[in-house]
Amino acid sequence: MPESDISLARRIAQRIHTNIAENSFASPGGGEFRVTCSIGVAEYIRKSEDTQALLERADRALYQAKEDGRNRISFS
What we know:
Blueprint: H1 6-22, E1 24-26, E2 32-34, E3 39-41, H2 51-67, E4 73-75
Parallel strand pairs: 3-4
Antiparallel strand pairs: 1-2
């Protein structure tokens, strides 16, 4: 999300997280189910950081969210 700060990213991640949790999905075999999600967010703050390093920080944040109990948002 270019031109976004961590505060905006936090609000958007929370909105996505909430929308996913609030919706149910139709099962091919009938019935419905719900899903949850874990989200990792990293802010680009170092001008010398390349894209790969930024993605690695976001990935670490995602795995931290999963380790913390899943269905969470973690920031790096």
